[in-house]
Amino acid sequence: MRFSARLLAAGAALSMLAIGGASAQDIPAFKGLSDDQASDLKAIIEAAKEEGSVSYWDTVIQPTTNDELSKAFQDYYGLPGFKINYTLSSTSNLITRVDQELSANKITIDVASIASPPWTLERAAQGDIVEYHSPQYEHYGQIFEAGLGKDGYFAFNGGYIFVPMWNADNLDFEGTSLKDVIGAVDPGRISHGDVAKSSSYLATFIGQRQVMPESFFEDLAKMEPVFILRSEQIASGLVTGEQLMAYSGMPTRAFQYNSKGANLKFMLPEEGVVLLPQNTFILRDSPNPNAAKLWVNFILSEEGQTILAANEALISGRSGFQTPLPEYSPAIDTLKLIKVDWASINTDDLQAARKDWVGIFNP
Amino acid sequence: MATDAMAHSDPSGRTARRSRFWRPQVIVPLVGVVIGILLIIGPFLATLIRSVLVWGEEGAAVSAANFTSLLSDPHFYQAIGNTLICSTGAMVLSCLLGFSLAWVVSRTDMPGRGWFEIANLIPFFLSPYVGAIAWTYLCAPNSGLIQNFFSDTFGISLAFLDIYSLGGAIWVLTLFYTPYVYLFVIAPLRRMDAALEDAARVHGASFGYTMRHIVIPLVMPAILSGALIVFVTSAGLFDIPLALLSPRGIRTMPTEIYSAVQYPADFGRAAAFGVLAMIVTVIFTLMQRRYLGRRNYDIVSGKGYRPRVIQLRPAGRVAALTLEIVYIGSGVVLPIIALLMVSFSSIWTGRFNSNFLTMENYNYVLFGYDLTQRAIVNSIQLALVGATVGVVLAVLQGYFLNRGPARWRAWIDAALSLPLGIPGIILGLGFLILAIRTPLYSTLAIVLIAYVARFFPFATRTVSSMFLAINPELEQSARSSGASWGQTMRLVLLPLLKPSLVAAWLMLFVIFIRELGATILLYAQGTETISVALVLLSERSFGYVAALAVIQLCLLLGAFVVFRLSRASLAQS
Questions:
Q1: Which residues of A touch B140 (CB under 8 A)?
Q2: What is the ipTM of this complex?
């Protein structure tokens, strides 16, 4: 036991020596920084080392992708072995957790990414999100202008869309409009994201409601959709053949299942798509605020965005970013976006929209 | 007056009473009782208080608004109606199946009945959530293994068999609650005097008539006891409705409480629901207790009575064997096969495809994913520590209830049995409300406390029944020979209690490994358990969840084997 303890101590000391010994120029994060910027970053890295870990929650990123992100993060800042506690959650569950922690004044989550812009804006207004001017924000000017982020508070690590999707092994479908979905499969063989329980499906419904008449949703309801919460479950329902069509399919999942041998297809409807930005922010009283800043900076960097786009087929909001998977995650400026003014939508509007959906679909 | 006067004039009497009270044999067991009562009262009061508080612009105010809003919501009645349908269906089917299985095992010459006697108990040890997940692989209407098998082999469509329905939930509940009735019924069936049946048959009664008018009435108290337990427990079970009914938007009481604390959270509504459900389930628990208290087996006794083994005719043997095979097949074999198939597939298409064969799912949940690794460690820690704490409490409470002062004993016994009827999710809600502003929030300790609070009565009842069988004269002899109370406990009582302590410990270990209802509201990052990880993974990948379910299954089956071995070894010793 004593020998093991000594061995561990010696290993830790050598690691520290290696980190301390590495010059700032060897660390990718320092490349291209001015002396002042490098000095600031060094101070944050030193403080993050003291903190020792960062706790990050997200609603999309698969843990295997996070493993890759974590490794790249450690290399990027020269922090080998730095602990990243990652949890994948549903949007509603994550919002519930954050709300609970805020009301209990016991914050365990440092950074969260949530695709619920009205909720995030509300939290920022209430002072629950740390004001932080990430150096990476200079690459996100276009999304701040589009109302998909808030300068000084949050940008998004990736955006995603919900669009009609099907399994080409089970269904021959060649629609281009949302209207083509109506009658494409027998009643009961289509799934729909559960708007009653999910903020991101609700946001999509709010956007689609602007471009589609109520009669369209009534016709969709007549197809007796099965309401499913998670995008992974929607995709696996298509792979098993349980459903033939998914109204709220996520191209990210098509990419992930197809890379394992499935044959999922999706369309980008001519009416447009609602882009759901995964707003990434630091919670007030976060236990590891410096490590949280490093994580936010990294995930918004070119390196972080490349990993996310390549593994999760997320749509990057970073200016000039070249998407590695254009068929699954097209560049943001090539998409026909349904414009939603999130800043003007409050909690009551959300509840009213949800009530509207429940009235039509009666889940 | 005279007595009072004497008492006042006799301070030494009070001193003697006080010194009697402070003896370790009174104080130590009393601590166990007080902890047990606090564990019940704490979350109950927290839920009750939260249910009558409403927050307005001027802060919190006492109001019945949460109750009136709940009672005027049609979803509340839908949830209650569905819960009643599920629990009543499960109760009726479990009674039919439990009685039939107990009868063929205990009273007939069915081949292999020694094996089936043990096998019938296996579902009792398995996780209902995992069972429900496995049945979604087996019987999803358009992609279940069973549906695909019949469609591919015989061209028959079984799409009407939908596991995501009230019928599906009743079926899976029945599979997992049948052992409760089976355990209640098998003992009286074994001890039943065969002369009564013989007398009926001699007077010309048919087999069916004898069953209806002799056998069933004789074991009716046991059947009803089992029925009440199945009804109360299945009404509060969160696991199966979460897996089978929530995906189709079918509301039940436990899933409604869970939904109420999800975004946008309404703790007042959840607490009001919890209080109403708690009142009903506590009433049922007390009814069951009262009923069990009056239960009487006058027909059982005497060496002259030996149960007669009925010689089945070939058709009867086939029928009995078929019943057993269907039950063990549905409750154990088919779910395990389905889980193994899915866990070894890189993607699940509803059919086993060797092209997708992989070990990656196991590699991932065991070595590649922090959360599942943490969850396995947390579950084992909780089960080891929780079972030990639960058994220590059980010994103290058992001692108090059997050797302590007779006054209040019945009331305390009734109070300590209340958690048996409180659904895990309601207890979890109570502890969440209680702990949310304390350092206990989002720690493993609060999960442990909730586990112990929910399940200590199981251990207390097991240990208490053993106390009943130990003659107090043994302890008195030890005391009169100069042994202290501690020495008497250590050298006399605890060795004699050992079989029940081992049984109670293993029972708690198994329950804690698979527990979900109380955990789902209390877990945080770092305190996930295997069952929570299963819920989180079930939202993502069939393969991962199946692999983790197989790992949990191995732990539970391992505990079952240890349970059997320890029983045999203790019986021998």
A1: 240, 242
A2: 0.75
